[in-house]
Design brief:
The chain is mainly β and 171 residues long. Helix content is 13%, strand content 45%.
Length: 171
């Protein structure tokens, strides 16, 4: 085999491996104590729980799907649109410690959302959701809220280094 042909084959294998690692893991159950490379996708109608999980990629939640994340690290942010319930930490009722989220969080059109005791490095956008709780988070970025039916901190304020806008002013 010629040197150029060998390099082309090796380059192709490296590219194929990189593409494989970039694919999202589909979550429809409870995942505990794992590292997931390439992100997580919660498909429409599914329910996913991540406990003590490291996600190297973002988390995307489909329509009518639910997500509960406890004691985990997400390197890529969280995106949800038209979902049921999104819970990123839920310290008070489920003993679900908060998370480290390196990336923004956008939740739009969910029935409910709770962000409790998380360290979030990015902007948080909460728009047109049902009942929303945003409490005891450390947000390195802005906190933008609008069109939510109800929104509260339950007397546990957040630390926000960026701007607080809309319904989240003073949170």
């Amino acid at each position: 085999m010629h040197k150029k042909s060998f390099l082309a084959v090796v380059s192709g294998l490296v590219l194929a491996m990189a593409t494989y690692n970039a694919l999202a893991f589909t979550c429809t159950t409870t995942i505990t104590g794992q590292t997931i490379n390439g992100g997580v996708e919660v498909p429409a109608g599914a329910a996913c729980t991540l406990t003590n999980v490291r996600v190297n990629g973002g988390v995307t939640v489909g329509a009518n799907a639910s997500l509960l994340v406890c004691s985990s690290r997400i390197n890529g942010g969280v995106q949800a649109e038209g979902s049921n319930d999104i819970h990123l930490g839920e310290v008070d009722t489920d003993a679900c410690p908060g998370n480290d989220i390196n990336g923004g969080v956008t939740i739009q059109g969910a029935l409910g959302a709770e962000l409790d005791s998380n360290a979030i490095s990015g902007t948080v956008k909460l728009q047109n959701n049902g009942n929303v709780e945003v409490e005891n988070n450390s947000i390195t970025g802005s906190l933008q809220c609008s069109g939510n039916t109800t929104i509260t901190t339950e007397e546990f304020p957040n630390t926000v280094t960026g701007q607080e806008t809309g319904q989240c002013v003073g949170f």
